[in-house]
């Protein structure tokens, strides 16, 4: 795996947390890479918005405020809607069965109270919708935005009662795509992201910092 991708995945996966210092020497040892390669990777990740460079202090994982998380979600609302509409137009029979299987697994995860499993399926669904839609520019932008917003996404996934709210929203997206209804798919994706924004604000008001169980 390329170094920049490995560090990116460590940030997105929560191995490195917001505001954590990223020491070149430590990263060089951890990823068995040269200091120059690490420096280049951190510069690239800074351009993506995942890392910030602090003058005379090196680099750290960039923390994203609530206001920025909301802005990111507003942009996602447009892009996710676009990808869902494209997916509805392009989806094949095999892909329809795959999407319905993901939906069934999401129902099962919610019924069993498996929050982490549901969160993983949530990410898988959004990824497959992007891939089926084939809108590569939107997909690249969404992947970058997902990385920037990862901490808020985790807090959202762990928020009590959230899966019961988001499950029917995801099922509506699946149904619209599987019935080739591009307008309904776009509307369902946008509705889901509006719900995400509302819940982000709610989580921030409660001050909760949930942890996986």
UniProtKB/TrEMBL annotation:
GO terms for molecular function: DNA binding; DNA-binding transcription factor activity. Residues 1-64 form the HTH gntR-type domain. It holds the Pfam family GntR. InterPro entries: GntR_C, TF_FadR/GntR_C, Tscrpt_reg_HTH_GntR, WH-like_DNA-bd_sf, WH_DNA-bd_sf. Keywords: DNA-binding, Transcription, Transcription regulation. The keyword Iron-sulfur does not apply. PANTHER family: GLUCONATE OPERON TRANSCRIPTIONAL REPRESSOR (PTHR43537:SF24), TRANSCRIPTIONAL REGULATOR, GNTR FAMILY (PTHR43537). This is GntR family transcriptional regulator. The lineage of its organism: Bacteria, Bacillati, Actinomycetota, Actinomycetes, Kitasatosporales.
């Amino acid at each position: 795996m390329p170094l920049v991708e490995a560090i990116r995945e460590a940030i997105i996966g929560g191995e490195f947390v917001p505001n954590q210092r990223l020491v070149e020497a430590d990263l060089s040892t951890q990823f068995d890479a040269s200091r120059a390669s690490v420096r280049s990777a951190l510069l690239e990740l800074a351009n993506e918005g995942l890392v910030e460079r602090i003058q005379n202090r090196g680099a750290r994982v960039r923390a994203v405020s609530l206001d920025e998380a909301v802005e990111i979600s507003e942009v996602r609302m447009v892009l996710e809607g676009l990808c869902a509409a494209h997916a509805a137009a392009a989806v094949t029979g095999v892909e329809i069965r795959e999407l319905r299987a993901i939906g069934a697994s999401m129902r099962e995860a919610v019924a069993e109270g498996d929050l982490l499993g549901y969160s993983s399926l949530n990410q898988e669904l959004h990824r497959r919708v992007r891939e089926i839609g084939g809108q590569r520019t939107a997909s690249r932008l969404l992947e970058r935005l997902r990385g920037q917003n990862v901490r808020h996404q985790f807090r959202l996934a762990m928020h009590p009662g959230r899966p019961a709210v988001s499950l029917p929203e995801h099922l509506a997206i699946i149904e619209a795509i599987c019935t080739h209804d591009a307008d309904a798919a776009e509307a369902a994706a946008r509705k889901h992201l509006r719900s995400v924004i509302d819940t982000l604000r709610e989580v921030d008001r409660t001050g909760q910092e949930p942890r996986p169980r």
